[in-house]
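In this section we walk through a basic example: taking a raw amino acid sequence and producing a predicted 3D structure, encoded as discrete structure tokens. The instruction is simple. Fold the sequence below.
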Amino acid sequence: MPGLHPWELVPLVLIALLIFGPKKLPELGSSIGKTIKEFQKSMREVTEKPDEQPTQPPQVATTARPELSAPTLSAPTPASTGPTPNQPPV
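The resulting token sequence is shown next.
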């Protein structure tokens, strides 16, 4: 039969008592128990939450990448009212 029986647990407890000592053994058992409870809680949350997932996919921001967009041409702003030395009068 599978599982641990009391006569199988006694040697395990004695070995743990020899390795960890009588002061650390209750702390070790407590921390293992807390770890198991947290694991079970997280597993319950995972199995109970699939219905609460959003039905719409997340929105992706659509911004134009500068290297892919067409160059923009802007009208030159004249610095003065007269022609510049490099340009002929209009």
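Looking at the output, two observations stand out. The first helix runs from residue 6 to 48. Residues 24-50 form one domain. In the next section we compare this with other chains.
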